[in-house]
């Protein structure tokens, strides 16, 4: 059968589909408006990875990759990982989707995860792992484990500016009106409290009565919230309070875990001993999707015990390619001592950002960081008094224009999904040091060109502003 206009896989492999055509087709058949907005800003790509840490745009301009939303521990297409995957595909005779059988790859990754975990959380030596295909799915699993373990409790506590994902369960504990409002009613029982406020937590648990609280779900540092670290002792006290009452604690380590913040597990570093831990992003080495929900044995058995062991499942979780890449990724993180490197480089990076912020306070109001999770908070580009009703849009404009200006300066960065004025740098944990230094030179050059935030607006070509304006009006 001939399908007109059908694009053969080899054409894409051999780069015969031009970047222009790829973008056109993506806009036409994909998330058109998102791509259109990126295109207006001139940051839509598609990009090629010319080294694991550098991207090239269709015009041949190279930029340092500090984006990827913390899911690229080794950069893009890191040869030791891609070569290993090629060997697996060539040599392994393991079945790809072993849902109804044991799997050596899955067994090895589970075992390694628990061994690594129990070095940092000794109480997890006999915990069990459930694999899925994204961070949000790992959170869905965690919510279901918690509910199964405390069936009479009804409330799930999470925090302001939290980000746990966008499927319905995880969205219910991601308090962001833009993402939630259209989808109400959400999963009932979600309660939002101020992040880092232990007294508010204690009071709320007393008010709801502890038996009615299923779990507290917490990011040890809020990534999408703009790299917010809770006050010292908050997580430890949260854990002690919950354990006293039998309330479960879920640590969402999807963004922070496996070295990003300079620790293997940020919650352990802050003295928390959670009952359930979620991992995703870097576990897939930047190459494949792997989510993991790790729960104490008794909790695991409550949901997946005996004849009910299929009560929660998915088709692709634990598939061979994902497990092989996950196994190798974890091994490389250990062998290359990357959490330690992330801490060391992170301190240097934060120091550079602090100096840039101090020199350009009218551009950046604040910088923050933990390991290689680094944040720059920008000043508003317009006074909110100018457009009082458009406060959110004005905030967002700061980070969108900062993203564009960084792009122009040669750095690919991340927006923050729950914090409008923050742009994050999340470079690979193994980025070469000279490139790492160059990245900050470029951030500094960007600041030099925009000593006040409003300059970012003045430097944006009028055509781009016009298109952005009409784009905003039509949404
Ligand atoms: C802390 C945290 N949890 C959950 C998620 C959702 O992960 P995913 O985008 O893979 O669904 C994210 C994604 O940014 C995250 O940062």
TrEMBL record:
It is an enzyme of class 2 (transferase). The keyword Transferase applies. Coiled coil: none annotated. Its EC number is 2.6.1.13. Its cofactor is pyridoxal 5'-phosphate. GO terms for molecular function: identical protein binding; ornithine aminotransferase activity; pyridoxal phosphate binding. Keywords: Aminotransferase, Pyridoxal phosphate, Transferase. InterPro entries: Aminotrans_3 (IPR005814), Aminotrans_3_PPA_site (IPR049704), Class-III_PLP-dep_AT (IPR050103), PyrdxlP-dep_Trfase (IPR015424), PyrdxlP-dep_Trfase_major (IPR015421), PyrdxlP-dep_Trfase_small (IPR015422). Belongs to the class-III pyridoxal-phosphate-dependent aminotransferase family. This is Ornithine--oxo-acid transaminase. The lineage of its organism: Bacteria, Thermotogati, Deinococcota, Deinococci, Deinococcales.
């Amino acid at each position: 059968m001939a399908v007109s206009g059908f694009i053969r896989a080899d054409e894409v492999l051999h780069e015969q589909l031009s970047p222009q055509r790829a973008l056109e087709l993506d806009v036409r058949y994909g998330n058109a408006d998102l791509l259109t907005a990126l295109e207006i800003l001139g940051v839509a790509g598609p990009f090629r990875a010319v080294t694991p840490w550098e991207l090239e745009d269709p015009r041949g301009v190279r930029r340092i990759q500090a984006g990827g939303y913390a899911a690229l521990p080794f950069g893009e297409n890191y040869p030791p990982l891609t070569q290993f995957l090629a060997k697996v595909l060539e040599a392994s005779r393991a079945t790809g989707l072993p849902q109804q059988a044991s799997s050596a790859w899955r067994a090895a990754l589970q075992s390694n995860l628990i061994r690594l975990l129990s070095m940092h959380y000794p109480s997890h030596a006999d915990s069990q792992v459930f694999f899925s295909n994204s961070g949000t799915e790992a959170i869905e699993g965690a919510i279901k484990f918690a509910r199964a373990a405390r069936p009479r409790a009804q409330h799930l506590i999470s925090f302001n500016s939290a980000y746990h994902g966008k499927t319905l369960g995880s969205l219910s504990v991601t308090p962001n009106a833009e993402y939630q409002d259209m989808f109400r009613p959400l999963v009932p029982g979600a309660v939002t409290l101020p992040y880092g406020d232990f007294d508010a937590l204690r009071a709320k648990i007393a008010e709801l009565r502890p038996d009615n609280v299923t779990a507290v779900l917490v990011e040890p540092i809020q990534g999408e919230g703009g790299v917010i670290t809770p006050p010292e002792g908050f997580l430890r006290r949260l854990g002690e309070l919950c354990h006293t009452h039998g309330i479960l604690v879920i640590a969402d380590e999807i963004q922070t875990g496996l070295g990003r913040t300079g620790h293997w597990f940020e919650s352990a570093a802050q003295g928390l001993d959670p009952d359930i831990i979620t991992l995703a992003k870097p576990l897939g080495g930047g190459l494949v999707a792997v989510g993991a929900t790790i729960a104490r044995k008794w909790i695991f058995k409550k949901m997946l015990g005996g004849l009910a062991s299929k009560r929660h499942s998915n088709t692709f979780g634990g598939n061979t390619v994902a497990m092989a890449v996950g196994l190798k990724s974890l091994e490389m993180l250990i062998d290359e001592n990357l959490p330690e490197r992330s801490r060391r480089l992170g301190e240097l990076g934060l120091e550079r950002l602090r100096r840039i912020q101090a020199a350009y306070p009218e551009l950046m109001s604040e910088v923050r960081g933990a390991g290689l999770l680094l944040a720059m908070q920008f000043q508003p580009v317009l006074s909110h008094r100018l457009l009082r009703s458009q406060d959110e849009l004005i905030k967002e404009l700061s980070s969108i224009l900062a993203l564009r200006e960084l792009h122009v300066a040669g750095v690919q960065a991340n927006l923050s999904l729950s914090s409008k004025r923050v742009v994050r740098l999340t470079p690979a944990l193994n980025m070469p040091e000279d490139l790492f230094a160059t990245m900050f030179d470029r951030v500094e050059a960007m600041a030099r060109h925009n000593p006040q935030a409003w300059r970012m607006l003045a430097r944006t070509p009028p055509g781009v502003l016009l298109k952005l304006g009409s784009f905003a009006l039509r949404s």
